[in-house]
Amino acid sequence: MARAPKTAAGPSDVVREHRRRYDARITQMDHVRKTWMSHWRELSKFILPRRYRWLVTANEWNRGTQINSNIINATGTLAARNASAGIMSGTTSPSRPWFRIIVEDPDVMRDSEVQVWCDEVTKRVMSVMAASNYYGCKAMQYFDLIVFGTAVNIIYPDRDNIIRCFVPSAGEYFLSNGPNGDVDTMARCITMTVSQVVREFGFENCSQQVRTLYTTGGGSREHEIVVRHMIEPNPDHDPALREPSMGYGPGSLGVPRMFRYRECYWEEAASEAGFLRVGGFLERPFSAVRWDVSGNDAYGRSPGMDALGDIMQLQQMEKRKAQGIDKIVNPPMVADATMKNEPASLLPGHVTYVPALTGSVGFKPAYTVNMPIGELRQEIAGVEARIRDTFFNDLFLMISQLDTVRTATEIDARREEKLIMLGPALDRMQREGLATDIARVFSIMGRDGLLPPIPDAMRNMPVKVDYISLLADLQRASATTSIERVWGFAGNIGAAVPGVLDNLDADATIDEYATLLRAPPRILTDKRQRAAMRKQRAEQQQTEQAMQVGQAAVGGAKVLSETDVGGGQNALQMMLTGAGV
């Protein structure tokens, strides 16, 4: 990590200018984010109260108070939880492989040393993820994604577990897009105690206020301050540079030009102080996943936003049902005015003596509530079903929700049909989230010397990630249906017109089918080996055909030699004599 330049009197003019620029940018990013925060606030109230922060305020001591009073029926929260758990187990399950490192060139990938290297690297990367807090943070990120439509995961190197992940809450971070429409800048406001700030950034880099509080000790060290944090592309980046000492950009904060991204921390309230820390990264250290994106929006839309209307309606219906039942069980009563201040009881077995009311008996309900509870429950069940469908619970809990026993083929067909709706979001999760996470972990391990030596066969060759999770396999397997239908259709026509099968390439079909199903490359023979096998088979067939022709000729000669034509000759002798032999 680099350290921001300072002078004896405090931060340099360069640092002050960068501080002003960063504060101004966060202010502008906050203006953009405010249009989303009102929606996030409603989502938080009715689905996920603990993962949203309206304001990042230091020394706020009511964070543990009860904040889910708006949730009467928890169907929305449970449906979102089922969806996030289904995505977690279907895309990044800790219990089964969900990706593999491969080489882009399929011919090189068939090399045994390359296969062993890729397999070993995949296992090591997954082991590092499992030993860290990656999967716990990933589950939290999916929950945020399902509800708020946007979720961020930051990955830092860690001395104990190689990597350490952080998932900021909605309302805590700000995002901005790069020229290609992907998020490339993240800022956030976080609260940290004085003790945490000093231990994280160093006593000498803190403001005078923080140093004074830390020196005072005792409870002063638990005083909280707001720290701002920004990660953005390094404008001085030069991809040709490979060493930190190769130069800095003019007017930079001391971040080497070799870094693609730079990072800054500073205290929000200490306007005249410098940066707490300035550093750089060779790759993007965070992933910002969005469920669905419109135009150039930095934030995404979610199933939670689609279900919010039904969830709010459900709370109102539950409230009205409870009020109706309460009035049926404990109705409001009317009594004669002479009973005022007289003892009255509604307990079983008690007696209340009343004078006669005009036209009726004295103590009775004010009105009769005739609420159709059965119909109301059906209406509520319908709203709950819509909420579960919006959160794709029918996909992740398909088997448990079936009323009758179905065949495996039917279940697969139903699942593939529903994956069509989940496909775009799954592709975006892989591109914006998983690819960035794996590249980050892979690079950290490479710099720490935790990867095996690269085989000579794949020197200077790019590697890529192949996703083999349950959902990815189901999505790719659905593409094999078109291949099967084409071959089935051609086979039906080929029964009447055999030449029609010449339109299909069997070898290309097998290769494509194996690719879609992610069959191990080693089960497919090499092209040269396949050509040699076919040549040998053709030669063997020609030899067998020649032998069959020879055997037929010998058999014919034998028959002719045994055929008597008279005159002491057989048919074979007569044919030879006639031929002048």
Can you give me a brief rundown of this structure?
The chain is an alpha+beta fold and 581 residues long. It contains 17 helices and 16 strands.
Number of strands: 16
Q: How large is the share of residues in beta strands?
A: 5-15%
The Cα radius of gyration reads 37 Å
- Give the class from helix and strand content and strand pairing: alpha+beta
Distance between the termini: 102 Å
Q: State mean pLDDT (0 to 100 scale).
A: 83
Strand order of the largest sheet: 6-7-8-9-10
Low-pLDDT runs: 1-5
Figure out the total of helices: 17
Characteristic key phrases:
five-stranded antiparallel sheet, 581 residues, alpha+beta, 17 helices, single chain, 48% helix, 16 strands, three-stranded antiparallel sheet
Walk me through this protein's architecture.
The protein is α+β, with helices and mostly antiparallel strands. The protein is 48% helix and 14% strand. The chain has 17 helices and 16 strands. The protein has helices spanning 13-46, 75-91, 106-109, 112-131, 134-148, 194-201, 208-216, 303-329, 373-390, 393-396, 398-401, 408-447, 470-477, 480-494, 506-516, 527-561, 571-578; strands spanning 6-7, 10-11, 99-103, 150-158, 162-166, 173-177, 183-193, 224-233, 261-267, 277-281, 286-290, 333-334, 364-365, 463-467, 564-566, 569-570. It has a five-stranded antiparallel sheet with strand order 6-7-8-9-10. A hairpin with a 2-residue loop joins strand 15 (564-566) and strand 16.
